[in-house]
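User: Okay, second chain of the day. Same drill as before: sequence in, structure tokens out.
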Amino acid sequence: MDEITLTIAKAYPNDSGRGIARLDPHTMMILQLTPGDIIELEGKRTTSAKVWRADRIDWDQNIIRIDGFIRQNSGAGIGDHVKIKKADVKIANRIVLAPPEGTSIQFSGEAEEMVKRQIIKRSIIKGDIIPVMSTMAHPFLGRVVTGQTIPLVAIEAEPDGILSIAESTEIKLREKPVILEVTGTGITYEDIGGLSDEIQRLREMIELPMKHPEVFERLGIGSPKGVLMYGPPGTGKTLIARAVANESGANFFSIAGPEIMSKYYGESEQRLRELFEQANKDAPSIIFIDELDSIAPKREDVTGEVERRVVAQLLTMMDGLEERGQVVVIGATNRIDAIDPALRRPGRFDREIEIGVPDRNERFEILQIHTRGMPLSDNVKLNEIAERTHGFVGADISALAREAAMKALRRYLPRIKLDEAVPRELLNSMQVTVYDFEAALKEVEPSAMREVLVEIPEISWNDVGGLVSARQEIIEAVEWPLKRPEKFERMGIRPPKGILLYGPPGTGKTLLAKAVANESSANFISIRGPQLISKWLGDSEKAVRDIFKKARQVAPSILFLDELDAIAPIRGMDIGSKASERVVNQLLTELDGIETLKNVVVIAATNRPEIVDPALIRSGRFDRLVFIGPPGREGRIEIFKIHLKNLSRETTVFNWGNVPGNDNNMLIKFLTEDLGIDRVDYVKTTRNETEKIIRVINEARSVEIVLDENKEFATFKFNDGRTYNLHVRKDNGQYIIYDEKKLSDDVNIEELADLTENYVGADIESLCREAVMLALREDFNIKKIEMRHFRAALKKVRPALVEGMIEYYEKLQEQFKGGIKQEQKSYIGYR
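Assistant: Same drill. Structure tokens below.
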């Protein structure tokens, strides 16, 4: 068989702009094709593409996967049929390319060679649109940013027919734009990652009525008139609308809500009428109204007359007496509850489509799209980055990729002279590494969490002393469900929804929450009582609802409620505004209501569990009640070791004999954290026959590091005159610069643990700090902290726990376990 007809499907994200058609092995065998062969595609016009094998999931589906550019070249869209056959290919002698109308591009002197390198071995027919990427190494001039795909049109091609670009092909570029016969060179479905189902639903409602209105006539129904897309900002609502308009070939009218509003009477309604009239005249067309909530709010909630008139006019235009014809209205909003309910009915907005926060696989797809023009290093694993970016929407991932590229650029800045051309070798050597993405991840956070985001503390389980059983319970209740949810599904049980940490003050409840936030890699939202309580009726409950809504949006997430007794005291105790009672009611509903908390774990901490509302402390809400008690002797030893670890070890600052750059991170950490340099831009190493000097430089100051003659000390010489001396030792022929340990050998941690009975973690931290302060008071340049300093500190720092308080918490623990039920006396009296 020489020819076969297949259905067009969307290309894989990585194939966009590469001139590739994906076929299954059966089709390739019928047409006697091997990977790399050129095929001819015939839709409304003829074009060509290079064949690659499709993924196994697409085998025997009778589809061909091609990107938006090939679809435009063939005059066919997704779901249409094209005829394909093996092409008769000739080597191109000469190709002339020009930008399409509406683009502003200037070509630099090396542009022709750069374009040739990108399109070599590609197939082309006169009139084809060929995408070329503007990369960091090959930028265009004009209003073009790095990573942007520039469509170029083949206005001349010699000889006629399907041609292949070879080394001998002459490529010419013309800056004068050309008018295209085919519509659209903008956003295609390949530019949208992770929204396949949403795009499919939109296409059913928009493309089908425009391309095949006879289907609806045969069924005796009217075509859909409107689609309302809603979801958090940055998820791709506007992008989808532009892609649908581009791919469907419809005329696209876009207007942002605030643009319609006018201070003059009747002008706002006039603008709306003109927009619909123009769309009707140019049908088939799509009207896209962005930020719909700003022009169509609930009429009972607004005080201005203009908004009411605009809503009424919009209702009339969408479902009035006049027939609208082939005009579809797409609305977009991130505040769907604020839109007038009269709009949200069939005949106006027939369907509402939620554009939600992408999951892991969708994030991976979006990352592939935003990094396809980047020179990525081999150590960049996009699937691992997708795993770590919980709660990121498309706009956040775009910002992450851009920030990683900027981090890479900063590494190369010292080698770039602003008044000279950048060397070609440097441009070609530029790469974005995994370390650039690591740095970018610290700066780019999910936009949905900006109001509630707290920086996840760099506290690991190694920073938590003692509390072994409590730590294990929290790992089981938090880390397991978030990291291995399939295990719970296999066993047919639901993981715990909430954990209540209770115990005396200073025992480490908040510290445990910080550690689990860091170790689980989940989004961490920390809430304090006063943030939720408001004197205005309904505001407190709304604050609780909004917090839980954000937690669901950015799941998997951890919601931490510190000082729960302040937020949710026993109902009936509040004789004022009853705000806290309403907060308790809302908390009960959110924790165990109709809407499930999936991949959201709530952790609460309190040292007054007896005044927390009992309805919260039951299975289904706070399933796990974890007692965080005072540490035993072994626990105190662990806590002392944690707080004294920086004093009890020497710190390697730099390895003098290493290849320059190997130990820069250690050096930079020492300079910024210990010596107080605000920022280190780069480390420069110079050598001559007798010495080696490392210069650490930023905008404000620089420092030189020089060894003395005997190689015993390294002197840090700052440009402001300050100096700092460190020790040097020789190890395997290399000189190690180090800061010696500051804890004297006479300090006995086990003896300190015996002397600190009833001390909690916060007391031990205070004791260590007081010992250092006493040593500094004695001699500001002191080299060692001795045992006598700790003995003196013990006289000043007393334990927070007293006998009565310990007994109170022991009885309370028994009560929560289901033991004694007698009335508990508050421990406040024991202070």
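Residues 4-90 form a domain with the Barwin-like endoglucanases fold (CATH 2.40.40.20).

User: Thanks, on to the next one.
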